[in-house]
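Anyone up for a design puzzle?
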């Protein structure tokens, strides 16, 4: 069940208006936060993708090399000795596995968190509200001019500090 509502705003003045409305409606300072292009959190999505590429490449290379030596009746793909065929299959497996690993790790890396981080980096302002009365918070943000305001599963990991408040 979502415990946060996130609203994206085009301008800082729209985000400030939403913060003002939320605070006037009784939302506490520790329930409301603002992330701006300057203070947006930096994720480790590039590191996750690189890890996926490395893991996929290693697994693909091993599988390509193993299949070359274990499938009876398969003729060499590359003219030459068995070592050339073995290396060719390992390289092809590494490339295929690396691509698959990259795609898999991008798909598995918290899509909503990545979406909001990209929006902040592109110059948008993110107002988030945690706690009860989420539907009221969503309506207040929509009234203040939010491009979108929607419930999300907590975009912050437990133990990580919240972005600076408005």
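Challenge accepted. My sequence:
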């Amino acid at each position: 069940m979502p415990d946060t509502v996130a609203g994206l705003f085009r301008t800082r003045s729209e985000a400030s208006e939403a913060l003002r409305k939320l605070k006037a409606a009784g939302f506490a300072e520790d329930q409301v936060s603002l992330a701006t292009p300057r203070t947006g959190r930096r994720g480790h999505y590039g590191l996750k993708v690189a890890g996926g590429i490395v893991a996929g490449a290693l697994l693909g290379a091993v599988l390509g090399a193993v299949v070359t030596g274990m499938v009876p009746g398969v003729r060499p793909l590359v003219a030459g000795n068995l070592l050339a065929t073995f290396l060719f299959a390992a390289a092809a497996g590494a490339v295929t596995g690396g691509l698959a690993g990259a795609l898999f790790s991008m798909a598995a890396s918290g899509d909503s968190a990545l979406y909001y981080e990209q929006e902040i980096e592109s110059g948008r302002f993110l107002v988030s509200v945690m706690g009860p009365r989420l539907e009221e918070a969503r309506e207040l943000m929509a009234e203040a001019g939010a491009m979108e305001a929607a419930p999300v599963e907590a975009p912050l990991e437990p133990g990580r500090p919240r972005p600076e408040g408005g």
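A detail worth pointing out: Residues 155-166 have pLDDT under 50 and may be disordered.
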